[in-house]
Specification:
The chain has 283 residues and is of the alpha/beta class. The protein has 8 helices and 14 strands. Strands 5, 6, 7, 8, 9, 10, 11 and 12 form an 8-stranded mixed sheet that branches. Helix 4 links the parallel strand 7 and strand 8.
């Protein structure tokens, strides 16, 4: 069923829900899902509504025009999207295949409602897997002495693909500031949750030496500050002294791909609201 997704964040005050509900009722809008959250700590209000598109007398542009006066009255940060318009997701990866393979499988199985125009990689290892899915694969090597040249090509490919979202599916390069700014709140990354306890190379080896009991992964939006963006999703797996390093790596990869897929799906369905460096999830 085609829906319009109305997402709102604004300073909290009396009458917000009533005003939005009255607006929708005036135009015979049929609400299929409604979520609200009032953050008492910072005084902000968050809302997400799904409305049957066929119940309204206007298209998306007409909705924006009709709703704009209410948004202005309440100083809303808002957007409305059409579920029929699939977001375009550019995937980026390096050599490790687990996260990329999982996302491609979910897309192929119609579990992820999006279009994937291309995959960009700084290595050529994953080309055959990507092209088997009928998706364009772009190999853009990154010269450590001149990364700017490579990321100029990456930016060109992203622009040509008309990407709405970029997903770093174990892409082992740091994105330049310009790209982070251009796609603020639209670049999704996955990393092991050992940060900052186990930074650098071989985090699972470090964790094994420390005898950890939980390993995990964090899906977050990319910002200019490394691994410090708003968190979308997290999960953990329990381990014991009996688990070898290889077993911990296997379990860690399972968590990583699961968390990344959940985080991407939440974003695709407009269920993630970002305020400051914190997220509100209407899942």
């Amino acid at each position: 069923m085609r829906t319009f997704r109305l997402v709102i964040a604004c300073p909290d005050r009396v009458g917000i829900v009533a005003k939005v509900s009255n607006f929708l009722a005036t135009y015979n809008g049929w609400i299929t899902e409604a979520s609200h959250h009032s953050d008492n700590q910072n005084g902000w209000f968050f809302m997400r509504h799904e409305i049957r598109a066929d119940s309204l007398p206007f298209d998306l542009a007409g909705f924006r025009q009709a709703f704009a006066p209410i948004a202005s009255e309440f100083a809303m940060e808002w957007q409305v999207t059409d579920s029929a318009q699939k977001k375009r997701v550019v995937l980026m990866a390096s050599r490790e295949s687990h996260c990329l393979a999982d996302l491609l499988h979910r897309w192929h199985s119609n579990e992820l409602d999006c279009d994937i125009p291309c995959v960009i990689s700084n290595h050529d290892d994953l080309r055959s897997m990507v092209e088997w899915h009928g998706i364009a694969f772009h190999h853009v090597p990154v010269d450590p002495q001149n990364k700017q040249l490579a990321f100029a090509e990456v930016s060109r490919l992203i622009e040509t693909s008309q990407a709405d979202v970029i997903v770093l599916a174990r892409y082992m390069q740091i994105l330049p500031q310009q790209l982070c700014q251009a796609f603020a709140k639209r670049v999704i990354n996955i990393h092991h949750s050992f940060l900052p306890s186990f930074v650098g190379a071989k985090p699972y080896h470090q964790a094994s030496l420390r005898g950890v009991k939980l390993i995990g992964a964090t899906c977050h939006y990319v910002t200019e500050e490394l691994d410090a963006g708003p968190i979308i999703e997290q999960d953990v797996a329990r381990v014991t002294h009996r688990d070898s390093i290889e077993e911990m790596v296997r379990l860690g990869k399972d968590v990583e791909k699961r968390v990344l897929a959940r985080g991407l799906r939440l974003h695709l369905e407009d269920r993630v609201l970002v305020h400051d460096n914190k997220t509100v999830l209407f899942d």
